[in-house]
Amino acid sequence: MSIAKISARKCASNVIVSTTPDVCWTPVGSDVVKVGYSSIAFLDTAIRHSTTVRNNGKFDFQLNSRCSKSTGHEPGTKRGVVVPGYLGPAHVEVASYFVFSEGWATCSHRDPAWINRPDPGPVEPQKSQVQAPIILAANDGTPGNNRAQNAQVDAVCRILKLTKDQRQMLHREIGGQNYGFQEIMECAKDMFGK
């Protein structure tokens, strides 16, 4: 399976799968026991998906999207042990910080997700264009490019809720390296365990 960040679409070949057992209360004879299942949700059952933005002809699967049901744990009729879901919806928990579709963050391959929820969950916050600036910085150290990189550092610090001291540490770390937004974000996550 590829580790590339391939965007998710409303399509049967796109899935959310459990990486650890989905433990459900399961009737066995007259007892009810905990049994771990491998669960899966197919993105072609998506609700609250993009209605105008397509990716290779398929609608975008966004942070606000939900798969209408999970499957693979059907015998666990007494619901999940940790979260009381049964054939429940699935959705991505953390999506892109910088790619949006209709105002919602887009989802990609291997984004963390929640499978077999007891309900569809809340409507996720929507970003406006003002909240998601696009700034391009070139490879030279001109004042304009320095300002662009400073703005990108500021945006990363806001997203990750970094302190002023952490911002200074990040700025020193990336200084002179001509990093773009995604590289700055990854550097900050590595530095501060976010």
Could you provide a short overview of the structure?
With 194 residues, the chain is an alpha+beta fold. 21% of the residues lie in helices and 19% in strands.
Write a structural description.
- This protein has 194 residues and is α+β, with helices and mostly antiparallel strands.
- The protein contains three helices and twelve strands, in the order ββββββββββββααα.
- It has a two-stranded antiparallel sheet with strand order 1-4. A two-stranded antiparallel ribbon has the order 2-3.
- A hairpin with a 2-residue loop joins β2 (22-28) and β3.
- The chain is elongated, with a radius of gyration of 20 Å.
- The model is unreliable at 132-140 (pLDDT under 50).
Largest sheet: 2 strands, antiparallel
Strand content: 15-25%
Number of strands: 12
Order of helical and strand elements = EEEEEEEEEEEEHHH
Identify the strand order in the major beta sheet.
1-4
Low-confidence blocks of residues? 132-140
So what's the overall shape? elongated
Give the helix level as a range of percent: 10-25%
Give the overall average pLDDT.
84
- Continuous helix count: 3
Count the domains.
2
Radius of gyration: 20 Å
First-residue to last-residue Cα separation:
25 Å
Secondary-structure-based class equals: alpha+beta
Organism: Agrobacterium larrymoorei
Protein name: DUF4150 domain-containing protein
Keywords: Plasmid
Topology:
Elements lengths: L14 E3 L4 E7 L2 E7 L2 E3 L3 E2 L6 E2 L2 E2 L6 E2 L23 E2 L7 E2 L2 E2 L7 E2 L28 H18 L3 H11 L6 H12 L2
Antiparallel strand pairs: 1-4, 2-3, 5-8, 6-7, 9-12, 10-11
Helix pairs in contact: 1-2, 1-3, 2-3
